[in-house]
Amino acid sequence: MDFDLSAAQKKRYAEILRESGTRLGEHRPDGDPDAVRRGFRTAAGIGVTGLCLPEEFGGGGLGALDTALGLEAFGRGCPDTGLAFGVAAHLLACAVPVRDFATDDVRGPLLKGLASGELIAANAMTEDEAGSDIGRLGVTARPVSDGYLLNGEKSWASNAPVAGLVVTYACTAPELGFLGLSAFAVPGDLPGVSFGPPLRKMGLTNCLAGRVTFTDCHVPRRYLLGAEGQGSGIFQHSMAWERAALFGVYLGLMERQLAQCVEHAGRRRQFGRRIGEFQAVSHRMAVMKQRLESGRLLLYRACWLLDEGREDKSAIALAKATVSEAAVANGLDAMQLFGGLGYLADSGVEEQLRDSLPARVFSGTTEIQREIVAKELGL
Amino acid sequence: MAQDEITERISAFIRDRFLDGDPQGELEETTPLLELGVLNSLNTVLLLAHIREELGVAVPSLRINPSDLKNVRSITAMVRELQHSAV
Ligand SMILES: Cc1cc2nc3c(=O)[nH]c(=O)nc-3n(C[C@H](O)[C@H](O)[C@H](O)COP(=O)(O)OP(=O)(O)OC[C@H]3O[C@@H](n4cnc5c(N)ncnc54)[C@H](O)[C@@H]3O)c2cc1C
């Protein structure tokens, strides 16, 4: 067993960290769609929009572990976690299924656009009545000549308001229960696709999210991902990548945050000494470090297993739950360490907490991850 | 392992865990598990974990599809096939 990163991994990490810090370090999220599009292009310039896409289409050709490392460096250098999350969701929940399941007719051009950051993708699974349980989708796809007719509404798709491509899932065979789904990569400009306004939310400001509605939307067959009825397996595959690698962004956030806390505790003086000398303060940071490192080990291992072709649902679920819970707990600790300053918007500390809270919900809630772990234990 | 034994073990697990023991003895080899909602996404994780632990067969995620998981008969056929391809 070797816990060291290779020289190439360290070099790539350092480059992404440096470039994201230089180009996006001062980025102030304001939810402006044009700024988000520019952010995607900058991210593409740093190479993160295509980390795990084939090199022939402009990607980095990396596996899951290297992708997670790249996202970690990006999340650490770029304090705009909404942008980092949006880029990671674009890559893992959308470009990965296109990479692995799109038809030859559309795969190359789509991957090229996705890797370059010119084509932004949104993943639309969730519906008003289908959140944790995606067994009965209301969005349907009816086979018609040369394709499918999609109807229904998706209630939450990150990136949707700026998306040129929607990876979505629809019911093609209600009699097959949760396996009656098919997956599609739907160009956003097809007639019958409409996007709602950006949803108002608590954080991840520069990841614009919205509803997506399909009204008699004719999707040509070449945009079907995999075979009809394979949607559930494709979704699980994309979620394996997302749950394992996306949370690298949060490892990066926690790294940056902990460094800020250490710096603050070493500088701020009360009662005649640096607050870091109070054990109540220093131990808080020791626990923050412990959460970060536990999450890191689980996440690297989950990605490594994925790269080995061993899809270990339990390892992935443990990593996802641990990193997201750690991000929230560390976010609360950082607020406390910064005192009143932490509550001020300009400190960036309260923003880190707001950006971390949804991590326990998206990509499958903590409770669902624990259900998966329990089922894998045979319970 | 013989086909009958695999069928029996899988049926027994489904009866016990998903059908409250199946007191009326309704489960058959061709009972449509997906259509009846006996298998949902979380139950399937449990069934596949059982197949892995008890029958030593790891089912890859792309085999989680309607033709392989339709009923006890198709699941048995998939397990047999994967057992043979593993040796
Ligand atoms: C920032 C953000 C980004 C998102 N981006 C996307 C996106 O890009 N695409 C997309 O499709 N969706 C997206 N979502 C939606 C997200 O996937 C869902 O919110 C999530 O799956 C939970 O579904 P729900 O909100 O309907 O909650 P529910 O399923 O209604 O759950 C409510 C509560 O009940 C609990 N619960 C439910 N079932 C069980 C169970 N069996 N056992 C124990 N507890 C249970 C849950 O854990 C949760 O605490 C995003 C959400 C957020 C917050």
UniProtKB/TrEMBL annotation, chain A:
Q: Which residues form the Acyl-CoA oxidase/dehydrogenase middle domain?
A: 123-217
Record's keyword terms, sorted: FAD, Flavoprotein, Oxidoreductase
Pfam families in the cross-refs = Acyl-CoA_dh_1, Acyl-CoA_dh_M, Acyl-CoA_dh_N
Q: Name one GO molecular function term.
A: flavin adenine dinucleotide binding
In this chain the Acyl-CoA dehydrogenase/oxidase C-terminal domain maps to: 229-377
> Which cofactors, by name?
FAD
Domain of life of the native organism: Bacteria
Where does the Acyl-CoA dehydrogenase/oxidase N-terminal domain lie?
A: 39-118
Family stated for the protein in its record: Belongs to the acyl-CoA dehydrogenase family.
Its name, as the record gives it, is Pimeloyl-CoA dehydrogenase, small subunit
Q: Which organism is it from?
A: Streptomyces viridochromogenes (strain DSM 40736 / JCM 4977 / BCRC 1201 / Tue 494)
